UniProtKB/TrEMBL annotation:
Residues 36-205 form the 3-deoxy-D-manno-octulosonic-acid transferase N-terminal domain. InterPro entries: Glycos_transf_N, Glycos_transf_N_sf, Kdotransferase. Involved in lipopolysaccharide (LPS) biosynthesis. Catalyzes the transfer of 3-deoxy-D-manno-octulosonate (Kdo) residue(s) from CMP-Kdo to lipid IV(A), the tetraacyldisaccharide-1,4'-bisphosphate precursor of lipid A. This is 3-deoxy-D-manno-octulosonic acid transferase. It catalyses: lipid IVA (E. coli) + CMP-3-deoxy-beta-D-manno-octulosonate = alpha-Kdo-(2->6)-lipid IVA (E. coli) + CMP + H(+). It is found in: Cell membrane. Keywords: Cell membrane, Lipopolysaccharide biosynthesis, Membrane, Transferase. Belongs to the glycosyltransferase group 1 family. It comes from Carboxylicivirga marina.
Length: 408
């Protein structure tokens, strides 16, 4: 099995080099790994080192609370942050709380040995789904503790199959797993792995911190005015926008809509505007009386997580495409979270629906009925909002538990 794995790693590395001249992502990965190899020859850390590995941006957001707490409470540690994906590395290569940001080398025995010798970590954190055979074996042989953060397991994974003995070797390299849910814990227990804790997802700590530190936006405040019927729609695509616009143009003037599209280039913004028959304006082109408008189009990035606080109901885009976007940023403010039908791959969405803090709609008619029901029943709106907020509050605390058990 190790031979097959090595062949697979070698074939993937060769493929990356072959397609690099024609594919930008492959080019970034190939060149990034070369720079990492050179940088490893130059590295000389003084003091203790923590290595945190995230596949891409989503996993980075789960590792970020750990990095922040290390720097806050244990500044004696240097932090090495690695990414597998260029989409993570290129966005966070200048992350100021990391002392070094690198690409994860390909998983060969030689690369694992050279990398670990170069950075000499005292503690290692792998985020969510990351399992690299040679790196884990090398860390285990050097008795360097590896902790799995915000990990989630599914019964379909090879670890839990009759042929999974080789894959289970990787699990034995971990000092402890901090898993997101009881299902993951039960799966590990079923194969004799007991070194786990059901801690939740560190992303919940991250979104709670973001909400507590969120900026105020005077223009958004003026737009909202005295209205207590505001829908904030985040990361929307055209099918989402059709549902939202259909609704806002069919109801009374008390209801307002804030749309923060996933794509904010001028062509897409113009497409939204062409559909609107009610007063609107772009955030970057404010009007003299914003409170008289019905729709605010947020055509800039970096505001969405703070803007949710101005609404009573959140709509999360993507559910009519490949899948919904981040539901937690809205739920942390305590508001019903609505999204399209393609949500099954997202645990938070499933949880919110199960707790009646979230709702999935199939189209405009169902959305209209749901929203009108919220506005007409204040007790229902409050109950749904409370359940959404309680879900986030209950799931917070993973970061504190990990820091307490690993560092104190």
């Amino acid at each position: 099995m190790t031979l097959l794995y090595n062949l697979g790693i070698a074939a993937y590395s060769c493929l990356i080099k072959l397609v690099a001249p024609f594919n930008n992502k492959a080019k970034l990965l190939s060149e990034g790994r070369k720079r990492t190899a050179q940088r490893l020859k130059e590295l000389k850390f003084e003091g203790k080192v923590v290595w945190i590995h995230a596949a891409s941006l989503g996993e980075f957001e789960q590792g970020r609370p750990i990095i922040e707490k290390i720097k806050e409470h244990h500044p004696e540690y240097k932090v090495v942050l690695t990414f597998f994906s260029p989409s993570g590395y290129e966005v966070r290569k200048n992350f100021d709380l990391a002392d070094e940001v690198l690409y994860m080398p390909s998983d060969t025995k030689r690369h694992a040995r050279e990398f670990i010798e170069a950075i000499a970590p005292e503690k290692v954190f792998f985020i969510k789904y990351e399992f690299w055979y040679h790196f884990l074996c090398e860390l285990k042989s050097k008795q360097i503790p590896v902790f799995g953060v915000s990990m989630i397991f599914r019964k379909e994974q090879s670890f839990f199959k009759s042929y999974g003995a080789w894959f289970r070797k990787m699990l034995r390299a971990f000092e402890k797993f901090y898993v997101q849910d009881e299902v993951s814990g039960d799966l590990l227990k079923g194969i004799g792995v007991s070194n786990y804790a059901v801690a939740g997802d560190t992303r919940f700590d991250r979104v709670r911190d973001i909400s507590r530190e969120s900026k105020d936006f005077d223009l958004v405040k003026k737009f909202v005015g005295e209205s207590d019927k505001v829908i904030v729609a985040g990361s929307t695509w055209a099918p989402d926008e059709d549902v939202l616009i259909n609704y806002i143009q069919s109801v009374n003037e008390e209801v307002k809509l804030i749309i923060a599209p996933h794509e904010i280039h001028s062509e897409h913004i113009q497409q939204i505007e062409a559909k609107l028959k009610v007063p609107y304006f772009r955030y970057t082109s404010p009007v003299s009386e914003p409170e008289s408008a019905r729709v605010l189009i947020v055509n800039t990035i970096g505001m969405l997580s703070a803007i949710y606080k101005y609404g009573q109901v959140a709509y999360i885009g993507g559910g009519f495409g490949v899948g919904i976007h981040n539901t937690l940023e809205a739920a942390t403010y305590g508001m019903p979270v609505v999204f399209g039908p393609k949500y099954s791959k997202f645990k938070e969405a499933r949880d919110l629906i199960g707790l009646h803090g979230g709702f999935s709609i199939d189209g405009a008619n169902e959305f209209n009925a749901y929203i009108e029901n919220m506005w007409s029943d204040e007790a229902l709106l409050k109950t749904t909002s409370d359940k959404s907020k309680a879900y986030v509050d209950k799931m917070c605390g993973a970061t504190a538990q990990i820091m307490r058990e690993v560092f104190d």
